């Protein structure tokens, strides 16, 4: 049973947006999905709660587990995830994990049990330089978890056809050799932030943008390939 980790040490890169959309789409495909919120911001938890408040239908077979404990921070993420994976109740576990810098305990713990880590990253140099801690942690995690695969994609890219930001992104991230760069690109679109108020994934939006739906569909194929 695969464990997918969506992680970055930098906020605002669509990490949670990616995790909740992938979870909703996976569940819609009939998979028994567990969404694990291991980010101190607890935004994925907010997504699930908003759906309930708005009276939206439950996402089939999606559950949420939060590991926020006490003042000592995050604790036993790796062991708890493995127990859930072995329970036989889920087909896929998707983890949303964040944290600052190279010492992020929640990301480090999740990396030791994940089959695949997916990192969205903004296209500016301000964003790409922050990949260094993630790249390093992935390399270290592979000493304990050699099966770990790591993927990276451009997020919040310009919608201007003349922009070269994605090309520059590919050049900037080439040095992070622990990652495989994905073909998918997620553009900066307002519909990607609506879930915070509506509790809807992109494909569930009544007035969804076709381009955004296609971007998410393309990303979905790569993530779960």
UniProtKB/TrEMBL annotation:
Keyword Flavoprotein in annotation: no
Organism: Burkholderia vietnamiensis (strain G4 / LMG 22486) (Burkholderia cepacia (strain R1808))
Keywords, in A-Z order: Plasmid
Pfam families, sorted: CbiA (PF01656)
Transmembrane domains' residue ranges: none
Coiled coil spans: none
Signal peptide: none
Domain CobQ/CobB/MinD/ParA nucleotide binding: 6-200
UniProt name for this protein: CobQ/CobB/MinD/ParA nucleotide binding domain-containing protein
SUPFAM superfamilies xrefs: P-loop containing nucleoside triphosphate hydrolases (SSF52540)
């Amino acid at each position: 049973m695969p464990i997918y980790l969506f992680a970055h040490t930098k906020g605002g890169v669509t990490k949670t947006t990616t995790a909740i959309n992938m979870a909703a789409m996976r569940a819609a495909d009939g998979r028994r999905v567990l969404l694990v919120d291991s980010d101190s911001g607890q935004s994925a938890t907010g997504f699930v709660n908003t759906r309930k408040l708005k009276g939206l239908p439950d996402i089939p077979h999606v559950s949420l587990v939060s590991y926020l404990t006490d003042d000592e921070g995050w604790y036993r993420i790796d062991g708890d995830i493995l127990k859930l994976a072995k329970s036989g109740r889920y087909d896929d576990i998707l983890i949303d994990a964040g944290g600052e810098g190279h010492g992020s305990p929640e990301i480090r713990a999740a990396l030791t049990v994940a089959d695949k880590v997916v990192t969205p990253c903004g296209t500016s140099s301000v964003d790409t330089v922050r990949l260094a801690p993630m790249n390093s942690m992935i390399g270290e995690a592979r000493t304990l978890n050699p099966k770990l695969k790591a993927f990276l994609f451009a997020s919040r890219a310009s919608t201007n056809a003349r922009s070269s930001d994605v090309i520059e992104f590919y050049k900037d991230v080439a040095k992070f050799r622990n990652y495989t760069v994905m073909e998918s690109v997620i553009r900066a679109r307002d519909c990607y932030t609506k879930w915070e108020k509506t509790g809807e994934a992109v494909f569930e939006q009544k007035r969804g943008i076709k381009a955004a739906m296609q971007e998410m569909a393309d990303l979905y194929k790569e993530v779960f390939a």
